[in-house]
Write a structure and sequence with these properties.
The complex is a heterodimer of chains A (116) and B (112). Chain A has no helices and twelve strands. By secondary structure, chain A is mainly beta. In chain A, strands 2, 5, 6, 10, 11 and 12 form a six-stranded mixed β-sheet that branches. In chain A, strands 3-9-8-7 form a four-stranded antiparallel β-sheet, with no helix packed on it. In chain A, 0% of the residues lie in helices and 53% in strands. With 112 residues, chain B is mainly beta. Chain B is 0% helix and 51% strand. In chain B, strands 2, 4, 5, 6, 9, 10 and 11 form a seven-stranded mixed β-sheet that branches. In chain B, strands 1-3-8-7 form a four-stranded antiparallel β-sheet, with no helix packed on it. Chain B is globular, with a radius of gyration of 13 Å.
Chain lengths: 116, 112
């Protein structure tokens, strides 16, 4: 069975500080995808990134960066120079590629509060 | 280019009633999934539809059923509502199984 754990329930930072969100996953499949989604107060889940299990290359997109390490089953997410608009709940998710579909298994989420 | 649209946005029902939630996928998407998100928790997968058939199902009772129409839109039906069914119901669509899922704003269902 697949499982995603986000140990941090809430993180509070002051604007311009960096914040790192941890994500640890469990799966028996060798081929899988990992995701990060952002959920602002409006409720819609906004897709941020997808990585497949064969691509451990770290990625940077603007102020966002992701660190994927298969050896520790982790897919951490860093927001550099945080802004108030980054305040939201962030979810890490896993999808097993060999299944009959692409259902997502989500972690419990980490609430990020960026104070001005 | 319209994204995933869900209706209604809010709904209030009483225990024992039945409810139908609707979802129109993003243009070009043919796969629709439904998730239940209780307050303060991550979304839980209910089921997924592709080619008008249920392809995957999560750990939800038979009271939860769905349908996908030829235009790829979908409905989620819940019978015999319980207080515990109060949640945000999210619909997501994708272009097949190998592309990321895009979510709608959700339907907030409250059971009294």
């Amino acid at each position: 069975a697949q499982k995603v754990t986000q140990a941090q329930t809430e993180i509070s930072v002051v604007e311009k500080e960096d914040v790192t969100l941890d994500c640890v996953y469990e799966t028996r499949d060798t081929t899988y995808y990992l995701f990060w989604y952002k959920q602002p107060p409006s409720g819609e889940l906004v897709f941020l990134i997808r990585r497949n299990s064969f691509d451990e290359q770290n990625e940077i997109s603007g102020r966002y960066s992701w660190n994927f390490q298969k050896s520790t089953s982790s897919f951490n997410f860093t927001i550099t120079a945080s802004q108030v608009v980054d305040s939201a709940v962030y979810f890490c998710a896993l999808s097993e590629a060999q299944a009959a579909g692409n259902k997502l298994t989500f972690g419990g989420g980490t609430r990020v509060l960026v104070k001005p | 280019d319209a994204g995933v649209t869900q209706s209604p946005t809010h709904l209030i029902k009483t225990r024992g009633q039945q409810v139908t939630l609707r979802c129109s996928p993003k243009s070009g998407h043919d796969t629709v999934s439904w998730y239940q998100q209780a307050l303060g928790q991550g979304p839980q997968f209910i089921f997924q539809y592709y080619e008008e058939e249920e392809r995957q199902r999560g750990n939800f009772p038979d009271r939860f059923s769905g349908h996908q129409f030829p235009n790829y839109s979908s409905e989620l039906n819940v019978n015999a509502l319980l207080l515990g069914d109060s949640a945000l119901y999210l619909c997501a669509s994708s272009d097949g199984f190998n592309q990321p899922q895009h979510f709608g704003d959700g339907t907030r269902l409250s059971i009294l």
